Amino acid sequence: MTLITEPSPDATLDNDLDADVVIAARLLSLDAVEQAKSGHPGAAIALAPLATLLFQKHIRHDPRDPEWVGRDRFVLSCGHASILLYTQLHLTGYDVTLDDIRAFRTLDSRTPGHPEYGHTAGVETTTGPLGQGLGTAVGMAMGFAHERALFDADADAGESIFDRRVWVLASDGDLQEGISYEAGALAGRLGLDNLTVVYDDNDIQIEGDTRLTSSERTADRFRAQGWHVDEVELRADGEVDTAAVDARLSTPGPAGKPRLVIVKSQIAFPSPGAVGTAASHGAPLGAVEASALREVLGVTTGPFEIADDVLRTARKAVDRGAELHARWDDDAAAWRAGRPELAAAHAAFASRDLPTELDSLLPSFEVGTSVSTRDASGAAIQALAAATPSLWGGSADLAEPNRTAIHDGGSFLPASTELGSYAGRNIHWGVREHAMAAAMNGIALSGGWRVFAGTFLVFSDYQRPSIRLASLMGVPVTYVWSHDSVALGQDGPTHQPIEHLASLRAIPGFTVVRPADANETVAAWSAIVRSERPSGLVLGRQGVPVLDLPADAVRAGVPRGGYVVSDVESPAAIVIATGSEVALALESAERLAAEGVLVRVVSMPSREWFAAQDTDYREAVIPSELTARVIVEAATSFGWHDLAGVHGEIVGIDEFGLSAPADQALAARGMTTERVVEAVRATISRSA
After folding, report:
1. Model pTM?
2. Which of 57, 354, 504, 655 has the smallest number of CB atoms closer than 10 Å to its CB?
3. In the annotation, is 655 catalytic?
4. Mean pLDDT across 613-641
């Protein structure tokens, strides 16, 4: 790309935007990065006109009420350009002060290095890992489409209070990440015409020109995925052509197609020595270049200085937002008056209400029968779906083996496909675990949904970045992971998880639940739908016996993470097991009892829930003075040594699995009664 480093003398925007407001946005971004001595100024400086256009004219938002239900959503997928967003939030009147801008990237500031959901007013999702914002935005658009279909399906296009748009600003890096291919294909298949992605096509990334890494035609790629694509070239003076962007965005796109607007820009424009340079991407411009930029812009004020009249002009966004909000409130009141039953249902949805008698509606299973936990989960999903309209989900082309399909729930697809509708409750994600997990976050952020999605546990690796962000944000999403150990059998080590449970438990704020039997699985679902945190439900493929336990004990014990399932007076040891290995622990306890060795058996479906209990409860289940302990789990021993203690034994699998029938695979990797019995003897001897 030929660089144009000198803007025209008046350097004004040729639409209705105020040039001084754009200059203020540019200089606030410059000054904040200079003061922090770190940050990403190039995109923020170059895209200030574009961001100003969006926030002043196109995004429906109310700076005085960032939680307004009727607002659009804006996602900065290129989260490294966070100062671009923070300056717009400040200028348009959100609770982001000039002192917050000055404190950019400092300890405890409200303007961290990357946008964080729940931390800064106006930030709709946490972004930073490239591509995640785009994937999350697809989920937001899905959530909005589903909500409209359930609560206002008969309204004409653009006439519903539930018609909201999701806006995304994306970078070259976002579109290079593999998740963007998955998310783009998904959005195209779903026909999400409430999604607009603005792509900053500036030809620069950290290592230099994007030609070093890419030769694809982005417009053709997205058109092939079912998107409507607009392309906007640079203005003659090198500035972003906001007039052309405005014209495109002011013209509705075709129905049934998400929209991509490719906008050419020059990174760091109009800073004369930095424009078009890779160095301006991720480092301060420096005092000399900062002074040069001020000179080009014709500004003599010092850092962080904004004239009162400029701020008043920018704050017209407050009046615009209040007017939009008031108009929406009137429309919402009319809708509630005309649809009282739907309005009541929507209020319950928004407040995430659950039926008071929920547990009585869930299935129970007969003691002694053999039921896989994935089958029990499938039954629980049917009951929950019948009782909770906000529950929907799907799987990564694994609905049958994951048991995630909602019977008679219909498919979430545009009606034009004649295969479903946006009211459908079964999402066909395709083999797209990464985009699936990111979109789940967006669905959860869009409203009161309880969303779940399934795949095999081993493929949680594909979901890890999105799981981490779900945990960082604390959004209530549920991952359904079946085929949880070498017991899946002949598919072999590529599909048999070993290290996965430990690595997932290591994520702060994330809950892993691995139930022992069918009734524990139902109790786990009951606890999960009441949670406001992300959870992973880990399920087995093989049948396991339904344990002979009182239903009340199971319902009370599972949410506490660990509880006694077999006890004796003065036990010589404790055996702590998870999942299908609880049955193995109980069988081993019976064999030991026949030898005169009495042990307590504890089922521990969730380490995280157990750790959250008070000391008295944890001590009652696992007394500290009883140091003879055995952990039994068909996975790596890593992560269990704290509970096992110095005298304990861990019966686990610290090598990859193998292809064999389930019982043979388990035996070959040491998940046997004999090994558990020997481990109990060893720990008793060691702790004596």
Report:
1. 0.97
2. 655
3. no
4. 98
